[in-house]
Design brief:
It contains 5 helices and 5 strands; from the N terminus they run βαβαβαβαβα. The chain is an alpha/beta fold. Strands 2-1-3-4-5 form a 5-stranded parallel sheet, with helices on both faces. The mean pLDDT is about 90.
Amino acid sequence: MVPRILIVDDETDFIELVKFRLANLHCEFLVANDGVHALSQARQFKPDLILLDILLPDLDGLSVCEILRRQPSTKKIPIIFMSALTSEVTKRTVAMQADDFFTKPLDLPRLERRIGQLLNHEAAET
């Protein structure tokens, strides 16, 4: 089964870059451009991993993470935050049980390795 990754960011060009750079992971990519759509996509498709920006229209990424972690059907989906924000945001991210935090601009080779680790861990649990 092909893993699904939900990429949540309000910048379409950024999403396309990430999809292009992660193409060798052989995953299906789902996309959301705001927090409300991200919640809908996560609930409907149950992705294997979520790449989540913090600054989003409608509902910010921190709120999206908090909501997903409270719902039994989505609470175990690995979440990696991607943001230009740092320091206090990083602390809040860890406190909300996100699986990792990457500062923009992304270190894409490191991100690819981390995604591989999280997807392999998930496969080992099933």
